Amino acid sequence: MAAEIINGKELAQQLRTEMKDEVVSLKNDGIHPHLTVVLVGDNPASKSYVRGKEKACLETGISSDLIELPTTITEEELLNQIDQLNDDHSVHGILVQLPLPEHINEQKVIEAIRPEKDVDGFHPVSIGRMMTGMDTFLPCTPYGILTMLQSKDIEIEGKHAVIVGRSNIVGKPVGQLLLNNHATVTYCHSRTQNLKQYTNQADILIVAVGRANGIDASYIKEGAAVIDVGINRLKDGSLTGDVDFESVAQKASYLTPVPKGVGPMTITMLLKNTIKAAKGIENSEG
Ligand SMILES: Nc1nc2c(c(=O)[nH]1)N[C@@H](CN(C=O)c1ccc(C(=O)N[C@@H](CCC(=O)O)C(=O)O)cc1)CN2
């Protein structure tokens, strides 16, 4: 079988065009969605992702601003900055780009963001609401993955989804989202013994481990839908995923590429969450 490639860049573009119309109509109703991005330090990858977010906002008609803070900022100063944004009525969504420098407690910072402005969907309130199947901000990468599967009408209900990776921002929430959509979910991670035993049973395989090309065709069940969340930069500067694209494409039914797969969808779902935040806040403030 030769897999159908799910082009995240194209899907992202299509969704952004639809959102652009929604933003125009919100603005006609006096709602001007606004995202504030907070970037601490000068991690080149984070800077590039933040630039991508600003560009996507601009494309969609969402206004945004970037607060750049030095690596030396204290945790208290950062928390004060978030408090100010929480109180600023013109800001609908707050996003703190991760990772943060080691001296800052990431969880404390995430918890400082008011849940109504948590467009990353990382706050425990958002996570708890997602777990219980309530309406909430879904974390952007898992939300993007779900949207990619749905865009191809890939059946989730009753299927076996295997997640390789258990991070708070991808592995754990994507498993929960698939469970909410009635999949049977297995989580695997760095201490899982005999990984293949599980991946070989996956109808849907999500790989988010950060090890370049580690999952080859021998890990794949014939006809599986394979979603590659890894973004690994090789010595020659090129990007590759966690999945060995060439061999897996021969066995899977669907496969996401890297780049132009899950990455652009992450940013697109952030736009969706920002629009949702703007609608929610403006409607509740009256
Ligand atoms: N506060 C957050 N921090 C981080 C998140 C997040 O969702 N919220 N996710 C990642 C990074 N990330 C977004 O922030 C992100 C990663 C990758 C891409 C992307 O479009 N990748 C491109 C390739 C880009 C390149 O050339 O380097 C692709 O896959 O085509 C977008 C966003 C960690 N931090």
TrEMBL record:
The gene is folD. PANTHER family: C-1-TETRAHYDROFOLATE SYNTHASE, CYTOPLASMIC, C-1-TETRAHYDROFOLATE SYNTHASE, CYTOPLASMIC-RELATED. Residues 139-279 form the Tetrahydrofolate dehydrogenase/cyclohydrolase NAD(P)-binding domain. CDD domains: NAD_bind_m-THF_DH_Cyclohyd (cd01080). GO terms for molecular function: methenyltetrahydrofolate cyclohydrolase activity; methylenetetrahydrofolate dehydrogenase (NADP+) activity. Keywords: Amino-acid biosynthesis, Histidine biosynthesis, Hydrolase, Methionine biosynthesis, Multifunctional enzyme, NADP, One-carbon metabolism, Oxidoreductase, Purine biosynthesis. Pathway: One-carbon metabolism; tetrahydrofolate interconversion. It comes from Virgibacillus massiliensis. This is Bifunctional protein FolD. Its EC number is 1.5.1.5, 3.5.4.9. Residues 6-120 form the Tetrahydrofolate dehydrogenase/cyclohydrolase catalytic domain. One of its GO terms (biological process) is tetrahydrofolate interconversion.
